[in-house]
Amino acid sequence: MASNKKIPLRKCVATGEMMPKKELIRVVRSKEGEVSIDTTGKKSGRGAYLSKQIEAILLAKKKNSLANHLDVKIPDSIYEELAILVEEEKD
Fold first, then answer.
1. φ/ψ (deg, to 5) at 60
2. How sure is the predictor about 41, in pLDDT bands with cuts at 50, 70 and 90?
3. What domains can be seen in the chain, in order of their start residue?
4. pLDDT of 29 strictly over 80
5. Which pLDDT belongs to residue 55?
6. Which of 7, 45, 64, 88 could form a disulfide with 30 if both were Cys (CB 3.0 to 4.6 A apart)?
7. 69: buried, middle or exposed (CB in 10 Å: 19+, 13-18, 0-12)?
8. Matching PANTHER family, A to Z (predicted)?
9. Residues 6+ apart with CB under 8 A from 25
10. Which parts of 4-75 fold into alpha helices (H)?
C-alpha cells in the first residue's frame, strides 16, 4: 500500500488562495522587527506567504496586506526584491 505524502498548504496574504508551500514565497519578520525574504522557508520569526506572481506582489503592496499580517512597515526594497525573485523564476 503506497502512502500519499501530505502536501503542506499555505494561504497567500494577497490573494487569499490556498497553495502548496513550494509555490509561495515566505516573507519573515524577526523578533527585532527586521523584514526579510526567506527563500529557504526555515528562518525563525513571523512569516507571511505570497504567491509567485507579480500581480500578487502588487496587490499585497496596494492592500498593505504584508504589513498588516506581519505588524510592521514593509520597506519598498522588499517589494522590489520580491518582484525580481518572481521575474527570475519565470525564466
1. -65, -40
2. confident
3. 9-90 (3.30.1230.10)
4. yes
5. 95
6. 45
7. buried
8. BLL0784 PROTEIN, YLXR DOMAIN-CONTAINING PROTEIN
9. 37, 39, 49, 50, 51, 52, 82, 85, 86
10. 54-63, 65-70
Q: Can you name the residues that pair with 24 across neighbouring β-strands?
A: 51
Task: Extract the C-alpha cell encoding 30.
Answer: 524577526
Per-residue confidence (pLDDT) for residue 91, from 0 to 100:
67
Q: Which amino acid is at 16?
A: G
Reference 72, options 44, 24, 42, 36; nearest CA is: 36
Provide the grid cell at 74: 514593509
Q: Which three cell numbers stand for residue 58?
A: 502588487
Q: Which of 18, 16, 72 is nearest to 46 (CA)?
A: 72
Q: Which of 61, 21, 56, 57 is nearest to 42 (CA)?
A: 21
Distance CA 37, CA 4 (A): 30
Of 31, 12, 32, the C-alpha closest to 21 is: 12
Burial class of residue 74 in the structure, from the number of CB atoms within 10 Å of its CB (0-12 exposed, 13-18 middle, 19+ buried):
buried
